[in-house]
Design brief:
The chain is of the alpha+beta class and 205 residues long. Helix content is 45%, strand content 21%. It is globular and about 65 Å long.
């Protein structure tokens, strides 16, 4: 059946955009709302902020996985997740050792993106296995001295050719994430100091 004259006139005035992506495809320019992320997450602090942030970021970008993790251990390659959103739910936190190639890229470049074939480029990488990553973006989180102390990772089980554009949305949140990691590290240090002092007091009485 042919279209009506009115529809043909409308199509002439508003031709389809060949660059427009299908509505089902993740596209930060169409779906992500940084102001909403701020409204929904910034009232919180500490672990509550990190959990809320990963949840809302995954929904805003329409990606499978978002995680925030600390890096520690002897060479800093030991990764411990602090908030891990996967699919439609929070997942339990995990600890792994990042492989040398990926770790070197994170520390050296402070930012690494892979649009597709992630597991072929980094075979056997535990982080990619945990997140089912076919594509990913990792931003390094640093302390005040410039040492990489953690990561923000976006991962998806299908290729994402527009994953580079996610960085524009994420960059403004990096200082807040770095501050929260610093806060958690300080709290851990204070708790450890309290335990040490309690041990000393207990031996005195």
């Amino acid at each position: 059946m042919s279209s009506s004259p009115e529809k043909r006139d409308a199509e002439k005035k508003n031709p389809p955009d060949p660059e427009k992506k299908p509505s089902g495809e993740a596209s930060p320019s169409n779906h992500a709302q940084p102001s909403l992320l701020v409204d929904e997450t910034f009232p919180f602090v500490g672990m509550r902020f990190l959990r809320s942030f990963t949840d809302h970021l995954a929904q805003a970008l329409r990606v499978h996985c978002v995680l925030v993790a600390s890096l520690d251990g002897g060479a800093g390659k030991h990764l411990r997740t602090l908030a891990f959103w996967r699919g439609q739910n929070y997942e339990g936190n995990f600890e792994i050792d990042i492989g040398d190639p990926l770790f070197a890229a994170i520390v050296g470049r402070k930012r690494i993106a892979c649009h597709r074939d992630a597991k072929s480029l980094y075979p056997g990488e535990p982080l990619l296995e945990k997140t089912d990553a076919e594509s990913f973006l990792i931003l390094a989180l640093q302390d005040t001295s410039g040492t990489v102390t953690g990561i923000l990772c976006i991962a998806h089980p299908q290729p994402l050719d527009n994953i580079d554009s996610f960085e524009t949305i994420l960059r403004p949140f990096v200082p807040r994430l770095e501050a929260e990691l610093e806060r958690l590290w300080t709290e851990d240090r204070l708790r450890e100091e309290e335990r040490r002092l309690r041990g000393i007091v207990d031996t005195m009485f």
